[in-house]
Amino acid sequence: MRKTTKLRKLLERDEVLTLPGSYDALGARILQTAGFDAVYMSGNATSASMVGAPDIGLMTVTEVLWRAQRIAAAIDIPLVCDADTGYGNLHNVTRTVRDFETAGVAGIHIEDQITPKKCGSLPGVEIAPMEEVLVKLEAALRARKDPDFVIIARTDARNAGDFEEAIRRGKAFAELGVDLVYLEGLQSTEEIKEVARRLGDVPKYFSVLEWSPWTNIPIEEIKRLGFKVAMYSNSLNLILTKAMENFAKHLKEHGDTRGLVPLMAKLHEEYNYVLGLTEYTKLENQIVDRIRSGGKTS
Question: Has residue 297 got a pLDDT over 70?
Fold first, then answer.
């Protein structure tokens, strides 16, 4: 079954799809091994990982696609990617959709910020005119060669200071026919409830941000409010950042890593297990044994 079809079927279930984020293939394999049904590639985390810079539109589509292809190839579950603003006008968006499809990605979200964009949690977010955004989303929907490829429309209107505009855009995106509507930057429990009420049965995408207590709510509550996806975009990256900082401080202070051993994955039982070393070794042994016995590999 294609990964796009797998994602479609996950979204058809009567439950919330938990979508944890990872910026690389190792993290994605860890999430898959833990039993998650799909993985998200965060633009914020990928920017930090690849160029060591904040999410202010510095990543090129080529860089993002390269990383997405590596992650998608490393896992058997669907990958959903942050595709920023689609990387240009309607023609760029058309190519963006097709390139992500070719990379093995199962779905993307496209946002309505101006270019260059910035992370929604940063100050100074600006949104593009509604008509321009709708044109790009229509281009994205038409560009799909695989009808199961999921198109998610994100609005940062609330981050730009206008809750009512966020609602208006969410409704317009749904009427256009996107698969999921994503209102980023909701500022209170009351706003979340209002989105749930006013968008009704529209398939909705929810972003969980640990530093915003009104979004860091149980999955049962997210389901009750009618959201189909609960995305934990940067959670793993923030945990890894703190772990790396602690490692650096410990090694600098103590001059060795002996005190950190209990915090480390065991090399073979955990680390190499996640990477699938057993499968690689099994294949190698099968091929070598067959050749040595005079057999054929085909």
Answer: no
Check pLDDT > 90 for residue 275: no
Q: For residue 18, list its beta bridge partners.
A: 230
- Residue 102's H or E segment, with its range, is helix 90-102
Q: How far is CA 205 from the centre of its chain?
A: 12
Q: Which structural domain range is residue 293 located in? A: 265-298
Q: State how far the Cα of 152 lies from the Cα of 177, in Å rounded to an integer.
A: 10
Pick the closest to residue 151 from 8, 253, 15, 291 (CA basis): 8
**If you average pLDDT over every residue of the chain, what do you get?**
93
Question: Of 214, 233, 252, at which residue does a domain stop?
Answer: 233
Q: Are residues 166 and 273 in the same domain?
A: no
CA atoms of 180 and 128, how far apart (whole Å): 19
Q: What is each CA distance from 69 to 24, 44, 65, 217, in whole angstroms?
A: 10, 17, 6, 32
- pLDDT tens readout for residues 81-127: 999 999 999 999 999 999 999 999 999 999 999 887 877 677 778 89
Question: What is the domain-level CATH number for residue 193?
Answer: 3.20.20.60
Look at residue 244 and tell me if it is in a domain: no
pTM above 0.85, yes or no: yes
The answer to whether position 7 is within a domain reads yes
| Same domain (yes/no): 161, 283 | no
pLDDT in tens, 213-232: 899 999 999 999 999 999 99
Q: 212 with 112, same domain?
A: yes
Task: State residue 21's pLDDT score.
Answer: 97
Nearest CA to 45 out of 69, 15, 97, 81 is that of 81
| Residue 151 counted as domain residue | yes
